[in-house]
Amino acid sequence: MKRFLLWFIPGLAAGVLLMLGGGKVIERTSTNKYCISCHIHPAADASWKRSVHYETASGYRVACVDCHLPPKGNGYLWAKGKTGLRDLWNYRTKDSASFNWEERRRLETARGYVYESSCIKCHENLFPLKLSKAGEDAHLYYKQAKKTPDLSCINCHLNAGHYIAGYTHGSNKTFGSVSSAPREIYKEAAKVTGFGSFTEQIPNSSVTFRMMAIPGGSYKMGSTDGEPFRKSDEGPVREVEISPFYMAQVEVTWDEYLAFYQQTAAEGRSTDTEGLRSKKSMATDAISGATPPYGQPDQGWGLGQRPAISFTFHAAETYCKWLSSVTGRKYRLPTEAEWEYACRAGTGTPYFFPGDPLKFEKKGIRAKLSKNDTTVINSYVIFSGNSHSRTQTPDMVRPNNFGLKNMSGNIAEFCSDWYQPDAYGQYPSGILKDPKGPETGEEHVVRGGSYLDLAGSVRSAARSFTRSADWLKTDPQIPKSMWWYSDCFNVGFRVICEFDENSGKL
Amino acid sequence: MKKSSISRRNFLGKAATVGAAGIVVPSLITGCSRDTKSRKVVPAVSWVDQAPDGPVLKAGLIGCGGRGKGAAVQFIKAGPNLQITALGDIFKDRLEDARATIKKEGQEIADDKCFIGFDAYQKVIDSGIDVVILATPPFFRPEHFSVAVAARKHVFLEKPVCVDPVGARSVMATANKAKELELCVVTGTQRRHQRDYNAAWTKIQEGMIGDIVSAECYWNQNQLWYRDPVKEWSEMEYMIRDWVNWSWLSGDHIVEQHVHNIDVINWFTGSHPVKAVSFGSRQRRKTGDQFDSFSTDFIYEDGMHLHSMCRQINGCANDVSEIVHGSDGWVYTADRNHCEIYDKKGNVKWQYGEYVPDKDGMPTHNVKVGAYNQEHIDLVTAIRNNKPINEAETTAVSTLTAIMGRISAYTGKMVTWDEMLNSDLKLGPKIFALGPVDIPKEVPVPGEGDKPAK
């Protein structure tokens, strides 16, 4: 017994000391000051101090650990230990100046650093009395969100902990009201004679864009088995004949899209559908354009000559209808066959420029060991290797043989075809003349790859498709927007204009 | 009355146009993984015959029609120290009528607590009351409920709680606000406060009918009341006085009346339908723009079908009841009959045993405390015992279920719960004043006419 006490009492004392001391250590290492002592990138600190969490109505200053660790008792210590070790490692081995703060604070990354349970711990009441109508709808949607686990508080409240200049989460009524386009207002569309490239003018706007004449011809659509990164939906290879047409030199820019938006935008979302029982209100079938977006469709990257993004397939189709009506020409989305013909521009290789997809790949041990040289692809394509995770302006790349830019990369592009993995095999045998794709489907073809993709996905033959439900997953509005995707920022489109060979007219 | 053919889109609001893109909003009752607070439906019923005593509870009545008067008297009789202290209505005659009724109960309401007009509800809520009884035509309910909860009043919320999806979501949101404030909200789907119904519910939970496989519910009755226009009345006054015949005011009778029976099935199954295919028509109605019959196939998430029918036509087979079939028998519940459970061969397995005999000792199907009284007893008991109950969201779900049936019948199309939760359909005019009512007055005609069948 004595022996036991001899060990037990000092043991107990040591334990108590450790507990007290441990508590102190945990406390000391959880202060804002302590966090900031290592997290020295000034952006984090400064943006926190400008946020609503720093200056709250209740006077409570929300601390770093309040959001970046789970609540105490919910894995707090475990998470603290884990993040601590990770941070220590990064602190020792990396240069914080090399961190891309802007990229890290985007939703996709931020989700990994903000604990939903911590949000809910403080914001226990999701239905405070002062909650707006839009807030009611959004929080009802959130409460019911069993099937959308990706929907988190910061989907809508990304700027709560760190201030983001210009961040809007709400109806963005002033979006696009300031255009960077020149001031001259065109009265009519461009005059075009003969089949040659021309600069289109959008009537009643100051916006122009270049249309390239694409001569008719034939090519082999799809890719063969040996092509690196090939997927099975790229075959079988088909011989295709394409009639001449015009295609926009670049993906529809924000300047172009905003001309459409400003001329057609509906007054705004409203729940006011009373009166719709009468046929009268349905009779006026004028082109009614997009409602104001929710949040920042351009992701804050800027407008102007950057490709327009975040709008739906429906919006792209409506744009083409509108452009046709104001110019008197036949503008539309390209078919998948036209798109690939234009992209290849006479080439039969994986890209419209020389090079092997395996040699352009940056990811993976093999790529690292072989020290791949990406100079060539960098000059033609905005892809994950050079995009800095965002769209870029067309002047960054060289055109293909038809004079078209960004056919591969930058943003992926809608085609008018329904997507089917076996679409090429469904066609009747023989040479295909201007094929238009399967008659039915659920999603549309998307081609070209984007700034997010690896080299293998920006090959001329690579195919992809819309993901309608996923791309609207976190739209909290009821009903969800038919004009703006909430979760897709790397797809846009390019217009083509039909050319009548017989009459020689557009 | 003009008739017009209508596309589904008109009735759904703008929701349906998203196309193939599935809008994923899971069902309210079954899917609420994020809700930390338990939402299990426990009957919020005290089963006491009188509410306990306590400090005076003052109630205001908004909507002084027949149901409002009844609810006011039932509130007063629910227990000691209960008063009606303020009245609100659009029409003075209705208000005075209610005032006289309440006077017979020994309570006088001062002139300065009687409010007339479209803003009367706000004045009643602001008049120093604790409880508000909302009994106007249902069109106004979401707004009144929202204002009442913002003023932190306990609420008796008459059914149906809305007439369109926008209203349903508003009530759901307000219900959540009321929960956070721990206010008590009892709704007028009073079968949930009816003792024989509750006994039947308990038997189902105990497994007496086995697994539920299908259900039927009925509200088939004679023609309901209507009013003819009077020269002195504006169009608005006429419509409100004739409100059970106008879809924007009542939600049509599948919503206004039949919601009771639909709510029982939702209650007994602990669920709600995910889609509906319905048809209905207008054969003999005299006024308004509503149908006078609906027959609806409601389909639940697990594939269970509920056949619901309701009719308001004289000289037809009438029935107001619910039946739920299980693998081991079926339960029959009716407001004016015995609640019973049968085995598969039709033998009575169980019958509610506490019906009270009449004064001559003859058997009746009356429970000891009628459900209309019980619901107010339960409301006052919850307030005085500080044990909040809140039925608003549940009743909003049942009301939206009925609205889904109505829209399916009006359009002839299948309508889904997701479409309902996403619809921006809002009925009614923009301007509320006693004058012309700027809405189309047309009876819906489902499907497409004048086109040869394909």
Description:
The complex is a heterodimer of chains A (506) and B (454). Chain A is of the alpha+beta class and 506 residues long. Helix content of chain A is 31%, strand content 9%. In chain A, the strands form three sheets. A five-stranded antiparallel sheet of chain A has the order 1-2-5-12-6. Chain A starts with a helix and ends in an 8-residue tail after the last strand. With 454 residues, chain B is of the alpha/beta class. In chain B, 30% of the residues lie in helices and 21% in strands. Chain B contains 14 helices and 17 strands. Chain B has helices spanning 8-12, 66-76, 92-104, 120-125, 141-150, 165-180, 195-205, 235-241, 247-250, 253-256, 259-269, 371-384, 392-411, 417-422; strands at residues 2-5, 57-62, 82-89, 114-116, 131-134, 154-157, 185-187, 212-221, 273-281, 293-300, 305-312, 319-326, 329-334, 340-342, 348-351, 415-416, 442-445. In chain B, the strands form three sheets. Chain B has a nine-stranded mixed sheet. Chain B is globular and about 60 Å long. Chains A and B meet through α9 of A and α1 and α6 of B.
